[in-house]
Design a protein that fits this description.
This protein is mostly helical. The chain is 70% helix and 0% strand.
Amino acid sequence: MSNPVFNNSDIFGDPRKRGRQRGGTAVQPGQAAGYGAAGAQTIDAASLDQMYGAPSATTAQTGRLTYDDVIVKTGGLLALLVVVAAATYAFAPGLWVVGMIVGLVLGLVNAFKRNPSPVLIAAYAVAEGVFVGGISKFYESAFGAGLVPQAVLATVAVFASALVLFRSGKVRVTPKFTRFLIIGLVGYLGFSVLNLVLSFVFPSEMFGPLRGGVLGIIVGLVAVGLASMSLIMDFDSIKRGVEQGVPAKFAWSAAFGLIVTLVWLYLELLRLLAIIRGD
């Protein structure tokens, strides 16, 4: 998988892979907990009929992950991020560097934790809000008013499109899809590192010598495409977690993973629109 939040999780992974990695003794047929051959328990017909007639327990009642859990957690974190970003944009845009460093550290910590920490995930949303708010102010000042609202609307549109395509079944996460995305991400990472190194040689280029003009627009479109594919993989990981009945607490991990991809998508769209407007 592309997103390290889901990629490093035993919860949202392929159950067949987890089965090969774990040991243990399977429960044999007829060996249900609490029922032994020597201590058989009996139940009268009325109680048995009442049990069969009772409604099935929902996933919420059994403490399992639901889509509502993920939506609520994601919405809360996104609202927190937006509020902090707006405050930073208006009052302290110069703190974006601090937000970037703290967000990077907290992102790595949360990505590799086996159990989600709501406090650390919320702290990550705050740090990313500081970073996004400050960098948005910089872009808006450099390339004119209206750039940030355009990037926000574009992010919402791409997210909605990816979700519709995934829910419709027209785009499915197959091994070929996964391999293509991983290759694309590795290639884009290498390109970005090379562009960063060359930017020290050509400091006059704002986005680096490889991110300007027509080439910069093409690379930006590729990056947006990769971020969109990552969103689809995130949706697939969440769907698998819900179907497998993982504990509800992992809704925080799912929400965190979505926030990571959404922030990346927004930044790529912001840079792409700035390149287009700058040219």
